[in-house]
Specification:
The protein is an alpha/beta fold. The protein has a single domain, classed as P-loop containing nucleotide triphosphate hydrolases (Rossmann fold), CATH 3.40.50.300. The chain has nine helices and five strands. It has a five-stranded parallel beta sheet with strand order 2-3-1-4-5, sandwiched between helices. Helix 3 packs across helix 4. The termini are close together.
Length: 167
């Protein structure tokens, strides 16, 4: 996979499995994994929910861009936040690498989100609304689209297979 463009970015809706697939993919490919939301939490010393509630989504998106720029180099896997596609600047940053859109059944996402952490945008929008707003952007950003409705191991194997087809 030497000829592959790095970093490899994972994008998709909240709850689509970007973080968990990113961790497994990085282990399988023996690459570093970075979760942009975790980097934001470390930098701001607060959780995403409180950051957006206190400082606003505009500030969060500014920090997201800063963290994306800082980490967009080298051989690694980057799990992006669900809204990474909202800023067209991000497309220019990410085009140096390979962008994979993880598409997941909305019912699976709802189930995952129901048992997870609080997400501020989920107070404003349903997952269907976010899907309708962002789907076209995810596709425009992506080099590959991979369904994430099976076992994580199978999804990682599918990603690796599709990456090998690119080179």
């Amino acid at each position: 996979m030497e000829k592959l463009k790095y970093p490899i970015y994972l994008i998709g809706l909240p709850g689509s499995g970007k973080s968990s697939i990113g961790i497994l993919l990085s282990k399988k490919l023996n690459l570093k994994h970075i979760d942009l939301d975790k980097k934001i939490v470390e930098k701001e010393n607060t959780n995403i929910y409180d950051l957006i509630k206190i400082k606003g989504e505009k500030y969060f998106r500014f920090i997201e861009t800063e963290i994306l720029k800082k980490n967009s180099y080298g051989k690694k896997i980057i799990s992006c936040g669900g809204g990474i596609v909202l800023n067209p600047t991000h497309k220019n940053i990410m085009k140096k690498g390979t962008v994979i859109y993880l598409i997941t059944d909305l019912e699976k996402i709802k189930n995952r989100l129901s048992r997870g952490k609080k997400r501020p945008l989920m107070e404003k929008y349903t997952i269907e609304q976010l899907h309708n707003i962002r789907k076209k952007k995810y596709i425009e950003f992506s080099d590959l689209v991979v369904e994430n409705n099976k076992e994580k191991k199978d999804v990682v194997d599918k990603i690796i297979s599709k990456l090998e087809e690119l080179i």
